[in-house]
Amino acid sequence: MEVGAVAINRCPQRCQTLALHAQSYLYGELSRLVMANIALLVSYSFVLALAQLLFKRAALLVWQDNPHGMLQYGLGLLSEWTFWLAGTILVGLMFAWGWLISFIPLAKAYPFIVLAIVFTGFMDRLLFNQPVFWNFFVGSGIIVLGLIVVAYK
Q1: Cβ neighbours of residue 20 under 8 Å, at least 6 residues apart?
Q2: What number of other Cβ atoms are within 10 A of residue 23's Cβ?
Q3: What is the DSSP code string of 63-124?
Q4: How far is CA 100 from CA 46, 79, 96, 105, in A?
Q5: DSSP conformation class of 150
Q6: Nearest to residue 60, comparing CAs of 6, 144, 138, 128?
Q7: Of 121, 120, 101, which Cα lies nearest the Cα of 40?
Q8: Would residue 129 be called left, alpha or beta, if left means φ above 0 and alpha means ψ between -120 and 50 degrees?
Q9: Which of 3, 49, 81, 117 is the most exposed place for a label (fewest CB within 10 A)?
Q10: Rounded-to-integer distance, Cα 153 and Cα 33, Å
Q11: What is the pLDDT of residues 23-67, one digit of tens each?
């Protein structure tokens, strides 16, 4: 503790404030995520999963029309509106992520990204009738339990 106190005394005012915030986080004051932050992170993961499903829809439509070479396939994607919508959503998510991690510690926020895997699997089953097996449910349960542990402490 002495080392931290000495380092804080040498910093200008702004540096002292940042150091005190870091110390309070390390000592647990900010270790719990508030419910609003959890809701934002879950929503982020859900929208990320939706973007992936839009990419899949575009890919399936283009493949149906032209199952030939990679170049023709890529050009076909450029003419599909769902491809552009998915890309636009991902760009928006990039900015949203920057905003989220400005007030949620990255170590707490990043694990919620894997929730997109759970959402994508369930929605893939609902929208594209893809098979989902028991191991997906077990893995999804483990992911959700892990997020509960991360969100708490």
Answers
A1: 8
A2: 14
A3: HHH--S-HHHHHHHHHT-HHHHHHHHHHHHHHHHHHHHTTTS-HHHHGGGGGHHHHHHHHHH
A4: 15, 32, 6, 9
A5: H
A6: 128
A7: 101
A8: left
A9: 3
A10: 8
A11: 555 444 444 568 888 899 999 999 999 999 999 999 998 887 666
Q: Which amino acid is at 26?
A: L
Residue located via tokens 């859900």: 46
- Orientation of helix 81-100 relative to helix 35-65, angle to 10°: 160
**21, amino acid identity:** H
Lookup result for tokens 């200008």: 12
For 91-105, what is each residue's pLDDT tens digit?
999 999 999 999 998
